[in-house]
């Protein structure tokens, strides 16, 4: 179909030639939300180095990520920057290769595998929670956001490598990955600069990548020599493609292992940090969580079967991921000309399903700024557009770790509610920082107080 007679989506005006990006980062999302109010759910944003079509309605998600997904691919500076570290891992691969990899990796995230992972997850969570005791005893201000980064890293390391890492190594791996992830954002903006130009942090980035590669390849080698199948990496090592009969090479395994880390640990940590930011501002929500956890678990160690009745815990996570979606935008590039809402989308144009704007769109969500976990009860979810809530993406590229992450989140909320009272520190409001994800700028600071009847601890 020829769309050339159609107009392009309206351009954000009033932005000097320099580009909208500095303003975008400075004013956070208010700038984009104001543009949506002025121009409608679809508009063009000048990013300086290129421009992008911003989409803020669930029907656009249905179009770009589901119904016409074959017309859009992961191209452009952002994905290229990710590829420098992820190689050809699942989040960045395309076409037949992506299909094959997804087929091979998917079974590692099946229901039965998640059930088998529950015990390991709880062990890792409890191990990390042990370091919270001091703050609970002394009443010292505690950065729960930083603590969640360490905790979800610990969970990923255990789920991924089993007991493959040596003492102290998990922490070092975590630090190196955190640095790499941050650096990728810089990479996205400086991609066009020549290699010889000294970009701050490049040497440290390269060292961090080298270190991660060494650790991952060492564990792959060790895994090849054993038949163990109790961790994600060993499942990938032994996976055979049902259609081609092929297995993954070491290089592919490296890319997939690193990709699962990058995609899975920071996102979950950030989501949890915002959940606590919100709950400490709405203590009645935390109190209800505690009541639910007391009723379902008492002091018992949670198992997989407990997740279903912990409905409020799940609703809290869903509502937090709505208000603060860690992956706040989903960029694509059009492979061919297309039409959205009567506008022309030229081939080669960057198109962004803007999760944050969709989650805050008042035409989609009633009182979108209100923290209200009950929105996610089955009764109140009825009739909602199925792409209204997309923190994990949509369509064929839907997050492979979605259930893993929600399960981990529920277990973490439950373990914390069993042990601690968590309250806000007056005057220490978390501030949003837009990087590769939306995290709290200087952490989320809270007070912890031990509950009088502590939860039972799993003994290995
Ligand atoms: C709250 C936590 C998480 C959030 C918000 C999140 C978000 C997302 C989003 C939005 C996508 C789709 C990206 C796109 O279409 O361009 C995605 C894909 C992906 N996620 Fe997650 N994710 C989370 C947790 C995890 C976890 C725990 C893992 C692994 C254990 C994981 C692994 C992946 C992978 C491998 C992909 C690529 C899938 C594909 O393209 O086939 N994620 N995630």
List keywords for this structure.
single chain; Cytochrome p450; globular; binds protoporphyrin IX containing FE; 460 residues; 17 helices; three-stranded antiparallel sheet; alpha+beta; 50% helix; 12 strands; 10% strand
Describe the structure.
This is Cytochrome P450. It comes from Archangium lansingense. Belongs to the cytochrome P450 family. The model has no long low-confidence stretch (mean pLDDT 88). The chain has 460 residues and is an alpha+beta fold. The protein has a single domain, classed as Cytochrome p450 (Orthogonal Bundle), CATH 1.10.630. α6 crosses α8 (144-161). The protein is built from 17 helices and twelve strands. It is globular, with a radius of gyration of 22 Å. A five-stranded mixed β-sheet has the order 1-2-8-5-3, sandwiched between helices. It has a three-stranded antiparallel β-sheet with strand order 4-12-9.
């Amino acid at each position: 179909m020829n769309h050339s007679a159609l107009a392009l989506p309206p351009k954000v005006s009033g932005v000097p030639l320099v580009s909208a990006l500095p303003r975008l980062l400075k004013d956070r999302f208010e700038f984009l939300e104001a543009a949506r109010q002025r121009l409608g759910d679809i508009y063009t944003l000048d990013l300086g180095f290129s421009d992008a079509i911003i989409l803020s309605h669930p029907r656009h998600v249905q179009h770009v990520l589901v119904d016409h997904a074959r017309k859009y691919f992961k191209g452009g500076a952002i994905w290229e920057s990710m590829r420098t570290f992820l190689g050809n891992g699942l989040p960045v691969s395309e076409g037949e290769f992506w299909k094959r990899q997804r087929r091979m990796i998917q079974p590692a995230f099946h229901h039965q595998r998640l059930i088998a992972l529950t015990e390991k997850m709880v062990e890792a969570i409890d191990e990390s929670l042990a370091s919270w005791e001091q703050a609970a005893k002394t009443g010292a201000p505690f950065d729960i956001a930083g603590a969640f980064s360490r905790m979800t890293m610990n969970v990923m390391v255990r789920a991924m490598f089993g007991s493959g890492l040596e003492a102290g190594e998990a922490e070092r791996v975590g630090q190196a990955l955190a640095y790499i992830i941050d650096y990728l954002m810089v990479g996205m903006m400086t991609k066009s600069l020549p290699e010889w130009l000294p970009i701050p942090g490049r040497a440290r980035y390269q060292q961090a990548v080298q270190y991660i590669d060494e650790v991952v390849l060492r564990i792959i080698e060790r895994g090849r020599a054993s038949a163990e199948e109790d961790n994600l990496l060993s499942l990938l090592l032994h996976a055979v493609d049902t259609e081609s009969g092929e297995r993954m090479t070491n290089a592919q395994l490296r890319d997939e292992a690193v990709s699962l880390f990058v995609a899975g640990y920071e996102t979950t940590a950030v989501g949890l940090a915002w959940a606590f930011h919100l709950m400490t501002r709405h203590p009645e929500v935390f109190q209800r969580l505690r009541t639910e956890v007391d009723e379902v678990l008492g002091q018992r160690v949670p198992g997989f079967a407990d997740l279903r009745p912990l409905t409020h815990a799940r609703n809290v996570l869903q509502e937090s991921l709505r208000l603060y979606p860690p992956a706040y935008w989903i960029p694509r590039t059009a492979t061919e000309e297309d039409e959205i809402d009567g506008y022309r989308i030229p081939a080669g144009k960057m198109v962004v399903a803007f999760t944050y704007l969709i989650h805050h769109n008042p035409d989609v969500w009633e009182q979108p700024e209100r923290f209200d976990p009950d929105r996610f009860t089955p009764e109140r979810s009825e009739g909602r557009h199925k792409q209204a809530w997309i923190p994990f993406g949509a369509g064929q590229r839907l997050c492979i770790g979605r259930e893993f992450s929600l399960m981990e989140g529920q277990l973490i909320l439950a373990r914390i509610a069993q042990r601690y009272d968590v309250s806000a520190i007056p005057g220490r409001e978390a501030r949003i920082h837009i990087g590769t994800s939306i995290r709290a700028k200087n952490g989320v600071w809270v007070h912890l107080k031990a509950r009088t009847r502590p939860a039972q601890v799993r003994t290995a």
